[in-house]
Amino acid sequence: MIDRSAMEATRVNADEFEHLVRSTAPGAERLPFRVTLLERGRAVLTLPFAPEHLRAGGSVSGPTLFMLADTALYAAVLSEIGLSPLAVTTDMTIHFVKKAREEVVAEAMLLRCGRSQAVGTVSLRTTEGVVAHATGTYALPPR
Fold this sequence. Notes:
Blueprint: H1 14-24, E1 34-39, E2 42-47, H2 62-81, E3 88-96, E4 104-113, E5 117-126, E6 129-139
Antiparallel strand pairs: 1-2, 2-4, 3-6, 4-5, 5-6
């Protein structure tokens, strides 16, 4: 985990992040997340339960959970480096643990943020516990 003082300010705030994603990310309108916490190297996003996110059987679809995990990790990365639309996912792996049938909370945390890449982890939860776990790497633009 990145060792940062809790007093150290994030390099982007929740409103700036949400505006960036909604104005630049394809498909962002299909993911009505809320940023509920944004600290340096850490982000928590909440996805309200909605019928349009469900797959057959009534559980939140895998692509929806993957998009939420990727967006949460992007928020954590930008909290560390600032607004940079050129930071891009280079690798992400997700493990689905159980079905999500309600609001999903994604908590992303950076493990390392260097000059050219950032690595982090995302836990996706409902009130019933962990529904998925993801790890990912972002390529960072030159600063």
